[in-house]
Design brief:
alpha+beta; single chain; seven-stranded mixed beta sheet; 9 strands; two-stranded antiparallel sheet; globular; 2 domains; 227 residues
Length: 227
């Protein structure tokens, strides 16, 4: 059974807790939500809940929830709808585009020495093409270009107060990871971390392992962990 926030619940959260919820028509949006959207949201929450379960047994690292990261923003003037949205101006085949990307989930890890690592998460269900000839159409390549370009101009520092971040991509299978890595190898964004910005894993393998110590694969093919 799936529950969703409706108008009355959103109003109570704003009045009681001061939650930064937009004045949206929540009940109408719930009625219009289709099965693909709901299934995607459930997979996002599965990942997030899995992190919380893993971290409750550790004393050396703590989870930083999205709302905590928002409170640390250097500039508190942000969009309440998509506070972690990134925008970038990119050149593709000699044409300039203004594009944006909104991660499915954002979290941080706080360590005993005071350091922290921040992550943006993409839960990919294989429904979006990896590449397209038209950059204005949705594709995973377009997302990767946006992340790389935003990082290159240090948007994360100005907007979020982060020194850096990594993008975790959880997808359907190894074949799709290879397609993403191949597309990533063709992208050149000066002053960006390049392929090392992205960590990849399949849903099935990740569900059987501890996401913190699991050997994710970065865009260069190297095994990496989150801690």
């Amino acid at each position: 059974m799936v529950y969703a926030l409706a108008d009355i619940g959103a109003r109570l959260l704003r009045e009681r807790d001061g939650a930064a919820l937009p004045a949206a028509e929540w009940s109408r949006k719930n009625r219009e939500a289709g099965r693909p959207f709901i299934e995607h949201q459930l997979e996002v929450m599965d990942f997030y809940v899995g992190l919380q379960v893993i971290l409750q047994y550790r004393r050396d690292v703590q989870l930083i929830h999205p709302e905590e990261l928002i409170r640390l923003f250097p500039d508190q003037r942000f969009s309440p709808t998509n506070p972690f949205a990134l925008r970038a101006r990119i050149s593709h085949h000699g044409v300039w585009y203004d594009i944006g990307v909104v991660p499915d989930l954002v979290f941080g890890l706080q360590f005993d020495d005071g350091s922290r690592r921040c992550f943006m998460v993409e839960i990919d269900r294989g429904t979006m093409p990896v590449t397209r000839t038209n950059l204005m159409q949705t594709s995973f390549e377009k997302k990767m270009r946006a992340y790389l370009s935003a990082h290159a101009v240090r948007q994360h520092e100005r907007q979020f107060g982060w020194k850096t971040f990594r993008v975790l991509t959880v997808t359907t299978d190894e074949t799709r990871i290879r397609s993403m890595v191949d597309a990533l190898s063709e992208i050149r964004v000066p002053h960006s971390p390049g392929a090392s910005l992205f960590f990849f894993a399949t849903k099935d393998r990740l569900s059987q392992n501890d996401a913190l110590v699991y050997s994710w694969r970065d865009g260069n093919g190297r095994g990496v962990s989150l801690i």
